[in-house]
TrEMBL record, chain A:
Superkingdom of the source species: Eukaryota
Role of this protein: Part of the endoplasmic reticulum membrane protein complex (EMC) that enables the energy-independent insertion into endoplasmic reticulum membranes of newly synthesized membrane proteins.
UniProt entry tagged with the keyword Endoplasmic reticulum: yes
Location, primary (coarse class): endoplasmic reticulum
Recorded topology in the membrane: Peripheral membrane protein
Locations listed in the record: Endoplasmic reticulum membrane
Alphabetized Pfam families for the sequence: TPR_EMC2
Domain (EMC2 TPR-like): residue spans on this chain: 1-47
An annotated GO cellular component: EMC complex
Official protein name in the record: ER membrane protein complex subunit 2
Family statement drawn from the similarity comment of this UniProt entry: Belongs to the EMC2 family.
Organism name: Aegilops tauschii subsp. strangulata
TrEMBL record, chain B:
CDD domains xref list: MPN_UPF0172
Cited PANTHER family: ER MEMBRANE PROTEIN COMPLEX, ER MEMBRANE PROTEIN COMPLEX SUBUNIT 8_9 HOMOLOG
Gene source species: Aegilops tauschii subsp. strangulata (Goatgrass)
Protein name in the entry: MPN domain-containing protein
GO cellular component, one term: EMC complex
Domain of life where this protein originates: Eukaryota
């Protein structure tokens, strides 16, 4: 139970076979054993997103958020992940009135992404800005 | 529906995908194909693949949705201005003699097919790629798969040359040339970009 690399490899094999539920289980074990490693939170969030469904998306968003916290806001994948989750969740809950505190998280993530792109990859900035704007509307 | 749809592969797309595969010789790589329907009135229809966008090379990111969705959105938005759209997907297996189209490739292919009914999936043939690198082959190193009416991905012809055509006949020579200058080190895929956003996944400066 303590061989973390084995759990990781098993998770990757499950993902390559598209057995996402089993992969999620492996990542859960890893997060339980080493809760401060952002890599596991991120991988878990991605698998949950791939599984889909409202509950999984909401949990994925939480784990993307915890990744952001553990990496000090520097992980691009997690920032994008939050935006993708929010867009997908709002698609699923269209017509239902569920105005939670989530909108702040999404705009903060979007802002952080824009700042980063402005600083390090200005050529992509307009493209990413357009995409984020579309997501907020949907 | 163009059953006998022909595909024309531009040099830029072909070289980029081959270089991407060469950069990560031990891993499976994949990417998107961008292009347009060359002449809507022509029959059989010809799809012109103008460019390739490498996606990822890490086995635990390959089949997961977030990166793929992000890439599809950004690629569509960017290439729309040039009148191009996502027309296909390419895949290279990790193992040298693995010539099967894996399930994940079929899934992505199905997804793209929904938006572009003449979507193509290209599977890189690792053995042929080796020969091209040594400069001893003029065949295309990719195998074309198209979607037939039974919703499964079918290999196009035994040699594929009737449906898939390289736009510039000297493409393989150009590829071998790039290999000798170690151009494959400079290929940037979407995974690289997410790890360091200053890397350009459009590979604008790659082929000069």
């Amino acid at each position: 139970m303590a061989d973390h690399d084995a759990w990781r490899e098993l998770a990757e094999i499950y993902v390559s076979l598209q057995m996402y539920k089993q992969a999620a289980f492996c990542y859960e074990e890893l997060i339980l054993a080493q809760p401060t490693i952002p890599l596991y939170h991120l991988a878990y969030a991605e698998v949950l997103y791939t599984l889909g469904g409202l509950e999984n998306l909401q949990t994925a968003k939480k784990y993307y958020a915890s990744t952001i916290q553990l990496t000090g806001g520097k992980n691009t994948r997690a920032l994008f992940g939050v935006c993708l989750c929010s867009a997908a969740i709002s698609q699923l809950t269209k017509g239902r009135n569920k105005e939670e505190e989530s909108s702040e998280l999404q705009s903060l993530a979007a802002e952080a992404l824009m700042k980063d792109y402005k600083r390090r990859a200005p050529s992509m900035e307009a493209l990413v800005a357009g995409m984020l704007k579309n997501m907020k509307l949907s | 529906m163009g059953v006998e749809c022909r595909y024309e592969l531009a040099q830029a797309a072909y070289v980029k995908l081959a270089l991407h595969a060469l950069k990560h010789p031990a891993a499976a790589v994949n990417g998107l194909l961008v292009g347009r329907l060359a002449d809507p009135a022509a029959s059989p229809a010809v799809v012109s693949v103008a460019d390739a966008v490498p996606l990822s090379h890490q086995p635990h990111h390959l089949p997961l949705l977030p990166t793929l969705e992000l890439a599809l959105t950004l690629v569509e938005d960017h290439f729309q201005a040039q009148g191009l759209a996502v027309v296909g997907y390419y895949h290279a297996n990790a193992r040298r003699d693995d010539a099967d189209l894996p399930a994940v490739a079929k899934r992505v292919g199905d997804h793209i097919f929904r938006y572009f009914p003449r979507a193509a999936v290209l599977l890189l043939d690792n053995v042929k790629l080796e020969e091209v690198v040594k400069g001893s082959s003029r065949d295309a190193v990719v195998q074309l798969y198209t979607r037939d009416s039974s919703k499964s991905w079918r290999q196009a012809g035994s040699d594929g040359s009737s449906q898939l055509k390289l736009k510039e006949p000297s493409t393989n020579v150009v590829l071998a040339d790039h290999v000798t200058t170690k151009k494959w080190q400079k290929v940037v895929d979407f995974d690289d970009h997410l790890d360091d956003i200053s890397k350009d996944w459009l590979n604008a400066s790659l082929l000069g």
